[in-house]
Structure formats: C-alpha cells, structure tokens
Write a structure and sequence with these properties.
single chain; 532 residues; alpha/beta; 8-stranded mixed sheet; 20 helices; 17 strands; 18% strand
Length: 532
C-alpha cells in the first residue's frame, strides 16, 4: 500500500499561525477540563474524603487495569448552560479485567451526584454506546437522585435509564452496579435493574423512600440501614449479590465479576501491521486550519493517523474535493472519507456512495473526517441533479451497516454534516477538534441570507430598507452563530462525544475501533431507493 508523501512546510507562516491558534484553543480546553476535574470544588471534595470515600475518578482509576487508557466521553457536557460543567457524572470506555467496558460514575461532590437534564443525556449516550458496540456496563453509584428543581424536564425521559439497563440485559450485555453511597428513589432501580449489584457496608443506601418520606407516608420510624443498608439488602431483601466491606473491596469484587463474565468479542481482531505513522502526528497542530476559510489537504491528516502512513486512495482523479481510500489503524482495516476543499459536488456525492457500498461489501469500518461547507448550490448544480446525488450519499450513510467513526476537524455546515455522518446519522463515536465549527451554515452566510430576505420583504411591501438596522442585525446574527457553532458549545450539548487534541486522534480512534469490534462487524446488503 502506498505511503503518503507529505508536503507540509513547518517553517511557513501558515503552519506557525495554525499551530499557535490550536495551542491557544487547547489551553482554553484544558482550563475547562480543570473545572470538571475539580468536581464540586475543594470544600466538597475534602468533605467527601473526610467521610472515608474516594472521588469518582479515583474509583475509576482503581477499577481499570493498571496502565489501561480511559477514553472519557463528553467531559464538557453542560458547558455554557446553567448546570455544572461535566454534568455531575463521568462516562467513558476503559479496560477492566481485560474487558472493554462502558463506565458510568456519579460525582457525589457535585450536588450529591444528583441528575439534571444534561446528566440524563450524558448517561443515555453512554448506555447507547454500550448497546450498539456490545460493551459491558459498570455503574459506580452514589447519587441523591433527581435534581428536583429540574424535574419538569427530567422525570418523564429519565425512565429511559431503567429501560436501557434492562434492555442491555436482555441483549446479553452485562450490567454491574457498584453502590458506594445513596441510590435513592428512582435511583434505587439502577442496582435493581443491573445484572450484578455490589453494596458497600455502612455507605450504600438503596431505598425508594428515606426515613423522612417513610415517616410522612406511613408514620413508621426507620433508619437508613433498616430501609436500605448493604447488610439488610445482603441478608434480608436479596437485592445485593455481594457485600463489600469498603470501597476498594467493592472495586475488587467488581473486577472479579467482569473477569468471570468470560467475555468474548464478536468482531475480528487487528489483522494489519500497527506501526506508527511515518509522519509526525504533532504536526497536525500546524496543518489544521484555525481560519476555516483556508482549506487543508486531508491526506496530510491521514498520513499522521493511519498505520505506517499507508493509504490506498480510491478514485483519486474523480470528485477531488472528497478523498476516499483504504488504510489500517492500530491494525484494523478501515475506509476513510475526508473532505478536501469543503464543498460536496455531484461527483463527490456519487464517489462517496460507491465507496460506502464497497466498504459494506468488504465489511470494513468507515472513518469520516469532516471539513465541509455542505453540498453545492446554484442554478447549474440544481438543474444537474445536486439534490438527487446528495440524497444518494445520505441514503448510503444512513443504511450502511458497518461501524462509522466521525471526527469533525474543521467546518461541519449544512447537509454536509449529515452526508459525512454527523450525530443524527448514528456514528458509533464522534469527536471534534477544538477549531471545529458546527452550524447550518457559516456566520457571514447565515446573516447575509437573513439580510437578503429582509431586503426583499421591504421591496415587496414598498418600504424603505433600513440599512443601519440591517447592519446591526447582521452583526448580532453573526455573533450568535459564531458563539453557537463553537466546539465547546456543541460538545456541551452532547452533539459529539468530546473535543480532542488533534495529536491524539490516532489514539482516540484506535480505542474506538477496538471497542466497536466487541460487536459483530458486518455490512448492509439492502439499501433504500437510489434516485438515478
């Protein structure tokens, strides 16, 4: 397979400007991550430790195999909202006793680990990843239940957590609950719905109603231990499968449960040489455009992500604004679709459609590297069938059966987001670079469209068009779209699974590829109707 030749000039002004811009964005990202890592703040973390309890990230570290990576998901969930950044829960993929698992851990230092609407979305996304990739789930439970002031947006949809947990069990995907503290009210059903429940002595409290509620409802006096303690559930109710003397004992038991699952992946293992890229992944910081109006060659990205920088390009002289081809990543064969010059034309759409069909025939996972302004518009393109050809591509993406992984490395505008497997099209994992932008279109274009529509409306009504008001409106719209297309804004809404350092793209995709191969990897034989 050919090795990609690089033409990156690391001494150029463009390279240096891009690198400086990306490093600045990554510094901002690290500042936000520091807020997440701090949990509820020093005061609440110290109070938690004073009770003899481990913070959630230390619980996760103890649960994982020594030296194993942890691919954290949606760490900036809730960014820009009224809720605590991180959403009082930690989710991710990590290796426990040699088995890749989805891990969901409450952070009790943030409002007692209570769940708000963002927490719910983050939890459900983690369970979805477990389901589609066939990954066992380990819940680290310590939560006060629902954030009551937000119950109007929480109560009804929150029932899906229990639905999804028991659905996983029905699908033969194991679920484990390690209960370190409160698991009350609706939260009591988490250990009850899981296949295995481990409760920590004198810490776990699993009950539908605590002492005050029981007193009000029945007049009965009962303490926490009688209602929901680990000893009671181990000896009387039978809810607990294992009684842990302390937190580390619970984690030890949890690791043993996973070891006893006798878990086997259903997908094929790595089959190619997993050698490092020839070209330095560190150079991705100077390749990615900070000014998204400046295109960059995605082959330079591919050369720094795939094994040995080897890439067998498919139809290199046809539909040249979309690069397609075959490679391997950490030994797993993959097909890659990457935007070259932003716009998707008819030829690019047909090329993508054919390539996706071929990947399904050969049962090869697909990686989408997005940097697109969308499908081409204009009289010539509309008359030539742009909509039909774009629909072919979207049809192929929608009905493709092989795993899809997506990285937004620049623009992700309009229906290009859909055709290049954006969130709505079910990629197994989706990550963004910090320079990325996600919106219906660019800020200037969107503001300009609204201006044209307003001008036409004024002309039709015979009114004088207010130029000053229009300029003010355009500036306001541009500022709004610039804010709402920001990578942090979109990851805060869980439109991706996290913002990543471009230099870590190979590692992140490698972990994700390994995870998707826990399930069967097979292509689709039947697609919808393709308009010809």
């Amino acid at each position: 397979m050919p090795v990609v030749t690089s033409s990156v000039d690391v001494s150029s002004d463009l390279y240096r400007d891009n690198r400086a811009g990306l490093l600045a964005l990554l510094e901002e990202h690290d500042e936000q991550l520091a807020l997440v890592l701090a949990g509820g703040g020093e005061r609440y973390v110290e109070r938690h430790r004073a009770r003899g309890r481990l913070p959630v990230r230390e619980r996760i570290e103890a649960l994982l195999d020594r030296g194993a990576p942890f691919l954290e998901l949606s760490p900036l969930a809730g960014w820009g909202s009224s809720f605590h950044i991180g959403a009082s829960i930690v989710t991710g993929v990590g290796v426990v006793s040699g088995v890749e698992c989805v891990i969901i851990g409450h952070d009790p230092t943030v409002k007692g680990g209570s769940m708000n609407p963002v927490t719910l979305r983050k939890n459900l996304r983690a369970l979805e990843i477990a389901r589609v990739n066939r990954l066992p789930v380990v819940n680290l439970v310590e939560s006060g239940g629902a954030d009551l002031p937000t119950q109007g947006d929480l109560f009804v949809p929150a029932g899906q957590i229990f639905h999804d947990l028991t659905q996983l069990s029905a699908l033969g995907i194991p679920t484990i609950a390690l209960v370190f503290g409160n698991s009350t009210a609706g939260g009591a059903y988490v250990p009850a719905m899981c296949d295995y429940a481990v409760l920590v002595a004198e810490q776990a409290k699993v009950f539908l109603g605590g002492p005050p509620l029981v007193k009000m409802a029945t007049g009965e006096d009962a303490d926490d231990e009688e209602l929901g303690g680990a000893a009671m559930h181990s000896q009387v109710s039978g809810l607990a499968d294992y009684f842990a003397v302390d937190e580390l004992d619970a984690i030890r038991i949890g690791r043993q449960i996973v070891a006893d699952l006798n878990w086997r992946k259903l997908g094929p293992g790595p089959s190619r040489a997993a050698d490092e890229p020839v070209h330095d992944p560190g150079e991705l910081l100077g390749i990615a455009s900070v000014d998204l109006r400046a295109p960059f060659d995605p082959r330079e990205v591919i050369a720094r992500v795939v094994d040995g920088s080897r890439f067998d390009e498919y139809k290199p002289s046809y539909g040249t604004s979309l690069v397609t081809g075959w490679a391997s990543l950490h030994g797993y064969p993959v097909g890659i679709l990457a935007n070259a010059r932003g716009v998707l034309f008819m030829d690019e759409s047909k090329k993508a459609t054919e390539f996706i069909l071929l990947a399904n025939q050969s049962q090869t996972p697909l990686i989408f590297l997005q940097n697109t302004t969308g499908y081409m518009v204009g009289r010539h393109y509309e008359q030539s069938g742009m909509v039909k050809d774009g629909a072919k591509m979207i049809n192929a993406v929608t009905n493709s059966g092989v795993p899809h992984l997506t990285v937004i490395m620049g623009s992700s505008y309009g229906a290009g987001n859909y055709g290049m497997c954006g969130r709505a099209y079910g990629p197994r994992f989706l990550f963004s670079w910090p320079n990325s932008k996600l919106a219906v279109m660019g800020p200037q274009q969107l503001a300009g469209v609204l201006s044209i529509v307003a001008r036409q409306a004024a002309d039709a009504a015979g009114r004088i068009f207010d130029e000053a008001a229009d300029a003010e409106q355009r500036a306001a719209v541009e500022a709004q779209i610039e804010r709402e297309s920001h990578a942090f804004f979109n990851t805060g809404k869980l439109y991706d699974d996290g913002v990543i350092d471009p230099r870590e793209t190979r590692t992140v995709l490698g972990i994700a590829l390994s995870a998707v191969h826990s399930n069967v990897v097979e292509g689709t034989r039947g697609f919808g109707v393709f308009r010809m």
